[in-house]
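User: Here's a chain of 542 residues. Predict its fold as tokens.
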Amino acid sequence: MVLTVRILIHELEQRFGEVLVGSAKVRHRCSDVRLLDGDPSPSSACSGNYRSDFIYVVASEAACAYAAAAESGAVLLEVGRKAVSADGRLALRSAVSCGEVFSFLQDVFARYRTWLEQMDRSLIRNEGLQGLFDASEDFLLNNTVIVDPALKLLAYTKGIPCDDPITVELIKHGYHTEDNVRKFKLNRRFDPWATQNGFIINDTNEICKYTTAVFSFKAAGSFSLIVVMMCNNVDPQPWLLDTFMMFLVRVSYYSMRDYTEGSPSGSAFNAFVHDIFDGSLADEGEIEERRRFLGLPARGSYCLFSIDVSQDKPLSARIVTDVARAIAPAKAMLHGSEVVVLCFNCAAANCPVGAHVDECPSGVSNMVKRLDGVLSEYGIQAGRSVRFDRLPFLPTALEQARLALKTARMLGKGCRRKQGDSERQAEAGSRIFAFDEYFFEYGVLSVSHGQRELLTSLRSCRQLMRIREYDAAHGTDNYAFLETYLRYERRTTVVAEKLHMHRNNVKYRADRLRDLFEIDTDSDTERFELAVAYRILESLER
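Assistant: Prediction complete.
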């Protein structure tokens, strides 16, 4: 733990009065304090015996004897009526003893050390940003807030009130309102936050009632977390900014953890979607405010993809970058062990996410085909949700995409199209599995888990199993014939072409099934039940 000389000077002046600085290096950092008492021994007079990261307290009468301490790079604090700030020394002209000053500085170091230990324990316990803020109010002194890239309030100094209207609105709503965002844009606040390093001090009072000290953490070419100190109690003097920086060093842990450089869609989008996924953002009014800030469509042909990268973690950052490049202007982000893609740029009803076409109606390349190309390159797969038009549906869409991929894998789906895959699935890409296509199989697998007879005992399933047993005993193919006959809606010419037989033989085979197995293909209900039974048996077998 180290404190800058500026912090120590401030603490001393609060207790003992003015400290003369002279040419002392006020940015110098000290880790502890020592008391110099009496005449130095010949051995200690050597500059090598003084630590450059210590501050030494000495009476003004003996200061000259300890000139080597200042020459070694250490900080020498002279105390007494005759104290002078020469040769990089500090001077405290106060009628106090060196022992009293030394004891006070020990308390200062102990107090700051305790604060830093509290913040470190909060990090270890993963108490979040609010834990850091709660531990730091006595040192920050001013009202301080932290917001994410979508300007949502993450934490603030709850024990330090502030009557600044912008701050009041932020705390009231939990995010900066559209009116606040408009003010930031008009005053061009976003560019400095995204590009400038260090503290950004603004004392124009164009937006806020008080001077502000802003520090923004950067990620992926933009800002990730923004920490704003509203200087409603203490001006942003250098010693306070030094203290503020000690706090920000701990905040940086959360910035690096939650807002990595591998965020090609932008940290604001990532934070927005993460908040919806984990349930911390559920209010539709707040979602609408933040949606407008991000420029996402109010209602559109949204579709979500989940790409499993659990087996490719070392390449996950590269994968999300390649996916984002391929599917732009759709968005991609890393979410745990999966890459989540949100497609929202289809402007027509026949969006290629739901239609097997080579080009979008808008004239751009089919996003699904481009995504499938990246998946093929890495040998990975993705699940796809249904189409939806409201962003609060995102958690359900994510679950649908995950279940579609999980179900497809349970059914043995690989990279190549297998017999029985739908035409639409083949068009969409063999590495992308849609919940629209696999919801039935998911239901079958869920219902039949450990209880296959619940479904196989259905009348239509028993009929099909009887047909298969007959085929096995007599070397016939009635099971396959009936499936094709039902799939192509009993169109004799089409069925004959698919099975390479004469059309008259199709009618004969259908009548034969009725006689042998009491199957009435003229009944709408029975045809539907048999079609369902085929899908049930296929799912159970896979």
